[in-house]
Amino acid sequence: MDFKTFLENFDAIAEAPGGIPKLRSLILDLAMRGKLVPQNPEDDPAFELIEKVRFTKKHLINDKKIPKPKNLDSIKDSDLPYEIPQEWLWVRLGEITKLLEYGTSEKASEVRDDVPVFRMNNIQNGKLLFDNFKYVSQSIKDLPKLYLQNGDLLFNRTNSYELVGKTGLFRGESNCYTFASYLIRISLFSEYISSEFVNLVINSSYFQQTQIRPEIVQQCGQANFNGTKLQNTLIPLPPLAEQKRIVEKVDELMGLCDRYEAAKKTRDNLRQKLRGSAIASLMNAETDEELDVAWAFVRNNWHNLSQYPEDVNSLRQSALKLAFQGRLTQQFTETPSASELLKAIQEEQEEPVTKKNSRKKNTLDPLNCPGIFDVPQAWKWTYLDFVCEQIGDIDHKMPTAVTQGVPFLSAKDLKDDGTLDFSDPKYISEEDYERLSRKIKPRKGDIIYSRIGAKLGKARLVEVNTTFLISYSCCLIRPKYQFINVKYLRYFLDSKLALEQAISSTQSIGVPDLGLGAIKQYKIPYPPLGEQKRIVAKVDELMQLCDQLEASLRQSQQRAESLAASAINHLTI
Amino acid sequence: MSLSATIKSIQDIMRKDVGVDGDAQRIGQLGWMVFYKIFSDQDAELELNDDNYDSPLPLDLRWDEWADSERLGKNAPTGEDLLKLVDGQLFPTLKELAVEDLDGIALERAKLLRSVFEDAYNYMKSGTLLRQVVDKINESIDFNQSQTRHVFGDIYEQILKNLQSAGNAGEFYTPRAVTQFAVDMVNPQLGEKVLDPACGTGGFLTCAYEHLKKQANSPEQLERVKQSILGVEKKQLPHLLCVTNMMVHGIEVPTTVRHDNTLRKPLRDYGREDQVDIVVTNPPFGGMEEDGIERGFPTEFQTRETADLFLVLVMELLKDGGRAAIVLPDGTLFGEGIKTRIKQKLLRDCNLHTIVRLPNGVFSPYTSIRTNVLFFTKGTPTTEVWYYEHPYPPGAKSYNKTKPMRIEEFDAEKAWWEKREETEYAWKVPVETIVANGYNLDIKNPNAPGNIHEDPVELLKQYQEAVIKAENDRQALKNSLVATLERGES
Lengths: 573, 490
Fold this sequence. Notes:
The structure holds two protein chains of two kinds. In chain A, about 40% of the residues lie in helices and about 15% in strands. Chain A is an alpha+beta fold. Residues about 355-360 of chain A have low confidence and may be disordered. Chain B is α/β, with parallel strands linked by helices. In chain B, helix 2 (about 20-50) runs parallel beside helix 13 (about 235-250) and helix 14 packs parallel to helix 16 (about 340-350). Chain B is globular and about 85 Å long.
């Protein structure tokens, strides 16, 4: 990606999930390539710095101030990760450090004592946090040798794989703090090398990816990176003046990232709150005027209310709920009315009941079903069982799967887009189909309703003329078509209104399932037929709106994510 | 070496021994050894301070006489000799300890010693390994060191943690913060009897004792306090640990801690003389009792859930005006059927004034179940229940081994306790609501942030401002990047 495209899409990249961390790492990597600040030919070149470091080091060794260091690997051209400006130099970390030391292995305790100990948790985002200390006594044998000095870096050598290598810079009073043994102290020649700069190098993603990750040894769930390896990592070294300019620039840009990140967070939280409150006022509206106001608000702020695809779901559910409260449609006087329809069902039912397969008399009275909330006067509440021909499932015995035969759908084949998925079902043999389908035979116009597992409470209309069967993770619901609109019924079953009834009646913990008994007793708002149809039309329209919104949000999110990834990996400047 | 490291290395030694099989036996072995060590230490102290005290221990069997290898040097028995001493002398003698000539405190202590050794068993078959264990114990557990007393709870933590089967019978180590908080709120007073009918390793009892000890002004009062801390534990091992725990806290003769099952005695057989002023307990939950236990209860309360049985029992064991704090799982709060009847009785006979809802993970790693501390006073019916939802400390998402619950976290509840008002965490529910809800006590926090919706129009304004700010900040970042990089390019 070139710089121009990057700038054109900057907003999308920054807004993508994980966009800001990606920008931060981009800034650091640019800094490490010498692209962030211009080189100045007047600066003393890096090789002169190294000469001075070597000279000072030799003196310190001669004076026995520091031990003689181990030999470092020589640098071959093939080791170099990328090109750097002329004035810079690749050096091994060991070359510019006085000492690399492991921290104290003395047991630290939470009881306040003389010396606070920095531990791996104190290293966050390149900084050291001065809290959650443990303490050791001043008298332990590692002190005063392991007192931290202002400007020391602490490198985390043992942690979980992702966290090994995180490093923080100590800026504070010398000789007051110490550090734990799974940290390595890097003490630099601060007259020639900026600690802040080396801290940036070690925390940059190029360094982590090329110098640390490949050399990590994993054992027993712990990942390790030792001091010898650390000495031999490669550092791109600019002139001292440039080191300082880079640090300053990175600080400035990171500061801007911080501000933007905070503002984004505030904004996103407010949007969540706004959506919650807009939907709540829609749901809680008591008069038609209140409803109109609340609805207008949602309608006008459609795009403010959802920014992420997941946000759309609550809009869907609230639309459904309003539909079942009769608030999306106007009520007219219809014949037959809802109660006439229910009576007709009852009359029709009385005949088969007198036959020999008469069931025990149901104690629930479908003509006087209590409501869950208020519905328009012309509506009634009734039980699901009453408006359905059949609610049933197959024998609870898993048939053997075969490679060809009758499709055997389960809850997983109920797709999120509202359809049934016949593309990758299990198959069962004809014989099994004959045997198992004695109780139920799904056909076009039925509703398949999932009742077990994580995907429970989804209803899908059968829209094809295929012979198939469903596993007992679903049940078949066949409405009395002349009395209830099948799409209306499907919307009801798919809504939270149905699921919440089911959940409140189960007490099971763990994998939930809905019993047929509970499903049959769902209370369903029952408008006259004409209105059912109008509700379906209205809900169809709203659902389509939601689908479009979700799709476009998802698309732009994906685009932004891939843009961000490609910007960070392939930005050419 | 820290205590938990000591325990770990002791367990490692025992693992090598052919006689010790499984964690339960390892802990059993460690249990009696630590008990005996502490008993002997305490004996030495008593003899020093009390001229009338006549130790029930035979001289040559005292811990120091055979265990202290620092003092005995090469003469310290090991190998076959040590095994002979322990199996051939120590156990037979202590099991049959003669108590006839003793009286007073010495008699009580002798009885205690005998009863412990009747139940205990030396599993170890290698004298050499036994010697190593003994030396480890000597190295790190010194009863006369206040620091050891202080961290003794750690031993239990470690022991129980290593007891893999912990939780099978529903027994969990109650975090110190919870016991301390419960006791502080129930606030036992001098002269009141405190009971834990399922005392486990004695967490509540030691807290109650420390609480009362602060109030005692004279040795006589302190003596009475020691007599007023009552506990019952069903299992032998926790009972032994509890007794040891009490001794560590300075109760020389913890005879008030009985090894028994409180549920076994039929409810109707509990009389006025069994009633106490205070009950603090964390009954086992999810556990099953042996068949027939529930038949000791009236038909309407018969259930196999031990937590529910204990709740019924606690109501019975309280005097009129008696106070209780009991830790119960969420299941009891929302459960129906028999649980409903028990809750009905609770609200009718007692004033259930407070329920503190604890977050997940308080009992980790034993169970992640959500629990509650119920506070009630017997004698007056409930009129309203105050709920307090205990939040995690700032920044924490759960509790774990390195970040357990701390007593300071309850400071907010303590401050709220006397001056109650509805807050983000606290709310009040009138008893009528609960009754109308079918005695469901599992009531969600209505004041939790996120439940209150502000005016959407006002929010929209704030949101739009936030959008603009984010846009400006993004633009600033972009501009700065452009300025930097284009200069870099030129």
